[in-house]
User: Which sequence fits this backbone?
C-alpha cells in the first residue's frame, strides 16, 4: 500500500482510497514532485486488492489551480528548444493517459479552482462531482495555447469546447454539469458525502467487473479519437509555445512575476 508524502496524502478503508493533493498554500498547483507522487500512488493503488475505487480531492479551498509556474517547473514550461519541449509535453500526456487506463475507477471531488493542469487531471477521472461554485477552465488558452490533452470536445461537444477554448473563460460547477464536463454539481457542503456515496456504490461491484466496464467505456471514447487528438495536440502545443504572443508573455512574466502577468493578461476579460 502506498504511503503518504508531503504533497500527496493517502487513506484507505472499506475498499476506497482517498488521495488528497496537499499543497493548499499553492491551491494544489502541480509541481514536478506532486505529479510524480500522484501518478506513482495511483498506480500502486491500482495494483492493490484492497482498493476498488479511488476518490481524488484537493486540500483546502481548491482542487487544483494548474501547473506551478513558480516552482522548479517554471524554467521548463516554455523552452527555447522545441525538441526538449516536445519530449516534456509527451511525457506529461503519457502520465495522464496512464491515469486514464487504470483499472480502478476514480471519482474526482472538485471544489474551488480547477484550472489548466487541474482540469486535465479531472478529465481523466471516471466520475466528477463538483461544487456548484467551482471554477473550471483553461485560462492558459489566452496566451499559451490550448493544452494537448484533447478530451474536451468529446466530453462537451465541439461548440461548447470551442466556446471555452476560444475565450479562455471558466465555467461554474453548475454550468460544467449542464454541458457534461462533470457528472453532477452539488452544494459545497454535500461535495464530500456525494463523492463518497458514488465510490461506495462502485465497491459493491467486483473489481474485475469494474475494470472491464471501465475499459468498455474508455474504448468508445478512444474510438472518437481522444488518444490520437491528444498526441497530435502535443505538436500543436509546441507551436503555440513558440508563437510571438507566448514568448512575449513568458518574457513579461519573468520580468514582473507570474501573478502580475496573469492579472494583466486577464484584466481585459473582467470588464
Assistant:
Amino acid at each position: 500500500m502506498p504511503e503518504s508524502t508531503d504533497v500527496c496524502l493517502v487513506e484507505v478503508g472499506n475498499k476506497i482510497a482517498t488521495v488528497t493533493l496537499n499543497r493548499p498554500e499553492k491551491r494544489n498547483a502541480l509541481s514536478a514532485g506532486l505529479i510524480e507522487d500522484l501518478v506513482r500512488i495511483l498506480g500502486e493503488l491500482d495494483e492493490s486488492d484492497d482498493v476498488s475505487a479511488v476518490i481524488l480531492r484537493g486540500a483546502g479551498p481548491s482542487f487544483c489551480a494548474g501547473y506551478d509556474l513558480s516552482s522548479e517547473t517554471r524554467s521548463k514550461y516554455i523552452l527555447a528548444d522545441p525538441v526538449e519541449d516536445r519530449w516534456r509535453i509527451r511525457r506529461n500526456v503519457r502520465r495522464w493517459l496512464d491515469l486514464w487506463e487504470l483499472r480502478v475507477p476514480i471519482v474526482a471531488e472538485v471544489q474551488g479552482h480547477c484550472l489548466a493542469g487541474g482540469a486535465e487531471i479531472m478529465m481523466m477521472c471516471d466520475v466528477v462531482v463538483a461544487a456548484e461554485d467551482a471554477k473550471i477552465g483553461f485560462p492558459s488558452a489566452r496566451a499559451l495555447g490550448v493544452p494537448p490533452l484533447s478530451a474536451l470536445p468529446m466530453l462537451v461537444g465541439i461548440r461548447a469546447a470551442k466556446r471555452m477554448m476560444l475565450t479562455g473563460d471558466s465555467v461554474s460547477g453548475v454550468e460544467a454539469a449542464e454541458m457534461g464536463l462533470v457528472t453532477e454539481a452539488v452544494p459545497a457542503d454535500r461535495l464530500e458525502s456525494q463523492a463518497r456515496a458514488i465510490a461506495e456504490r462502485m465497491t459493491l461491484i467486483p473489481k474485475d467487473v469494474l475494470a472491464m466496464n471501465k475499459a468498455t467505456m474508455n474504448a468508445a471514447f478512444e474510438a472518437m479519437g481522444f488518444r490520437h487528438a491528444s498526441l497530435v495536440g502535443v505538436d500543436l502545443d509546441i507551436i503555440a509555445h513558440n508563437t510571438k504572443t507566448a514568448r512575449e508573455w513568458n518574457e513579461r512574466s519573468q520580468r514582473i512575476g507570474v501573478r502580475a502577468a496573469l492579472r494583466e493578461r486577464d484584466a481585459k476579460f473582467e470588464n
